[in-house]
Write a structure and sequence with these properties.
With 276 residues, this protein is mainly alpha-helical. 76% of the residues lie in helices and 0% in strands. α6 runs antiparallel to α7, α7 packs across α12 and α9 packs parallel to α11. The radius of gyration is 30 Å and the shape is elongated. The termini are far apart.
Length: 276
Amino acid sequence: MRLFQLLFVILLFLISCSAPEKKTGVIQEKNIELQMIESYQKGIDAYEDGDLLFAAKNFNDAEILFPQSIWAPRAALMAAYCYYELSYYSDAIYELERFLEIYPKDPNLPYAFYLLAMSNFENITSEKKDLKPIKDSKKFFKIVISRYPNTDFAIDAKYKLDLINSILASKEMYIGRYYLKREKWIPAINRFKNVLQNYDTTEYTEEALHRLVEVHYKIGLEEEAKKYAQVLGYNYQSSQWYQESYKVFNKKYKKIDKKEVKKKNSIIKKFKSLFE
């Protein structure tokens, strides 16, 4: 009996000793949460005032202060968006990749993937001939389309994907023409075939077919040249490129004057200039 009483006294003593520590821990956590909310609010105020850099800093501080809070992922996304709006695309990409790693089950994942794709997409013009931003944006737009097909983000992602394919096709055509001009027949053929295999929905399909007619005719593979000419004629009979292919077989071939080629969509032209 005395042993039971002794154990009970010891238990009470331990509880009494630990209680103040628990209370202190709760108070400290509450203070940190209040600081986090204050930083988050400062970020919102700075954003509304147009000071996006200060806003991003405060959103970053809010996340660091209380990462287990429900506000932490929101703060991380807001910081990324501020960097995106500032055209600090590398910073936005860093924040978004970190967000996806830390908060893989957050309900705002569709937006995070879309913003990551857009950050890479907008980074294309500042990277000149570096294809990494183009390929990364394509990868993340595809994720948006496949995982979140019923969102508004997916609708815009499909449109952006068409633009990206046109950019990549333009790059392939540019290199193919380069090889063709220097009579590097096999590399030229490979580039033009790549356009047909991977970018057949772009406006470069017709020219790629014609270039394959041209190359195969020049190296003496007339039957192969005719095969591509038939495909071109069947699908694009009214195309100017079909007329040029017709001239190849009638010994009247001449290069197309660039001024005669139909003007591309203004958005496509913006990116096409990167490779010409």
